[in-house]
What we know:
single chain, alpha/beta, 7-stranded parallel β-sheet, 9 strands, 17% strand
Amino acid sequence: MTPTRSPLPMQGRVVAVAGATGSAGRATVRALAAAGATVACAGTDPRRLDALLDATRRAVPGATVVGQVLDLLDPQAAGDWSDHIEAEYGTVDGLIHLVGGWRGSKKFTDIDLSDWDFLHDQLVRTLQHTTLGFHDALLRSPRARFAVVSAAGAAKPTAGNACYATAKAAAETWTLSLADSFRTLVAAEAATSTDEPERAAATILVIKALVTDEMRAAKPNAKFAGFTHVDDLADTITDLWNRPAADLNGQHLWLTPR
Length: 258
């Protein structure tokens, strides 16, 4: 008798990953695909995007993973991406924002404000465009999750890290506003709906910094104290759908000691 195969925990879920070709994105796409999700990936470099798709399909045979080259600084492109995913797969159950970047200086007076322009675009503007573009589609899902990665430095900025910390703090504030929109709009439907009272959640994942196996191999004596491995970040993201929205919406999940 052939044993019954247990369904994968993310089977039937459709998740978009922005910034999919970075180290965190690659780990997250692989983890979501291994859990059974359909993963729609966005990146700006077609070669890196193709490499991500190939690597994921090799690591997870049978994975449904697709990619699209997008400039998320274009609000129309972000909205069209959401519309395309929903039209193709019938739902958008998650958006993971992993668009990153860093700029800093040794001293406060050495700050170059062009760094702020770069970080504002990368960390804030892409977040604004994707969340505005995906907002309604996420609310149509019976169990939607949004996550953005922030940094412990947003709450304790250092002198030379002012631009980065300010951008991360802005991203957190924007995400909390998204969480309030989810809470308010879903609550308005609760009286006539049998769905989970807070079925949509926007969550902030807080790290000190990320580490990969390659980084550890390159510096075998480094401790990387307080760093979060990209695989652990990916596992935390995948687990969001196992947790009640009410426990996640508008919350900071710390992946490093406070």
